[in-house]
Design goal:
alpha+beta; 8 strands; GMP Synthetase, Chain A, domain 3; SH3 type barrels; five-stranded antiparallel beta sheet
C-alpha cells in the first residue's frame, strides 16, 4: 500500500498519519505506523487502526518477507523529517543538527516558525532566533524539558 492510500485509510478513522518506518530489531523486521490526533492517541485507537490496515497490508506488504506491524503515537520526543512535521511542532522544543561547510552545527531551542523552506528556532543558549533552510538539516527531533 502506498503512503497516500495509507494516509486516506487512517484519516477515515479520525486520526492523521504522522510517519512510517521500516526497521530491523533483534533480527525481526518491523513496519511502524505513527499516528496523531488532537488530544493524543489512545491504545484503543492504535488497536483499531491495526485491525483496519493489517488485512490490507497482508495483500500489499510494505516490505518483503515476514514483519511485525506496530501502530503507535510518535511520542512526545519524536523525529522531525518533513516540513509538515516542523509545521505541526511550532511552539515545541527542538534539537536540530545542521550541515555546515566547516562543521556540524547543533541548535537547541523553541521552534518559532516555518515559512516556505525556512525554519526559525529561538536558540536558548545564544538567546536569539536562528533561521536556516530545511535542506540544511541532518537530523531533528522534539524534546521534552523536564
Amino acid at each position: 500500500m502506498d503512503n497516500q492510500t495509507l494516509k486516506k485509510v487512517i484519516e477515515d478513522c479520525g486520526v492523521k498519519l504522522y510517519d512510517t518506518e521500516s526497521v530491523m530489531e533483534n533480527e525481526q523486521k518491523i513496519y511502524r505506523v505513527f499516528i496523531t490526533q488532537e488530544g493524543g492517541v489512545s491504545l484503543d485507537k492504535c488497536a483499531e487502526i491495526t485491525r483496519i490496515i493489517s488485512p490490507i497490508l497482508d495483500l500489499e506488504p510494505p516490505m518483503s518477507g515476514q514483519y511485525a506491524l506496530e501502530v503507535s503515537s510518535p511520542g512526545i520526543e519524536r523525529k522531525l523529517s518533513t516540513l509538515n512535521h516542523f509545521k505541526q511542532s511550532i511552539g515545541e522544543n527542538v534539537k536540530v543538527k545542521l550541515e555546515d561547510d566547516e562543521a556540524n552545527v547543533n541548535i537547541k531551542g523553541k521552534l518559532m516558525k516555518v515559512a516556505d523552506n525556512i525554519i526559525t528556532v529561538y536558540d536558548k543558549e545564544q538567546q536569539k532566533d536562528i533561521s536556516f533552510p530545511f535542506t540544511q538539516i541532518l537530523k531533528a527531533r522534539t524534546y521534552f524539558q523536564w
